Amino acid sequence: MGMDTELIKGTLSLLILSLLSRKPMYGYEIATTVGQDTGGAFDWKEGSLYPSLHKLEKDGLIRGQWQGKPGERRRKYYHLTKGGRAVLVEKSESWGQLCRAVNQVLEKSK
Fold this sequence. Notes:
Blueprint: H1 5-22, E1 25-26, H2 27-37, H3 46-58, E2 62-67, E3 75-80, H4 82-108
Antiparallel strand pairs: 1-3, 2-3
Helix pairs in contact: 1-4
């Protein structure tokens, strides 16, 4: 059975902000890193990743910057902004509370 995509959708921006708190990354690098970190459980496709990146950029939480040496393929590296870092802290706390609450119900239902 695959992962519930509705559950995953809510974590997408949280995970992107978390990954970018490590270092600036380009889109494909973000997708590969989350794949590696989750043992392949998360396989982000461009169709879900790039709309999220664009929304986070529009909201001022990340900043995209084109980089590349002349003659090489240019890549857009995304950087976490100060606002993005603040939202990451807030979302991480909310996620922790949500996980604890859901786990309490699940444990009592076994």
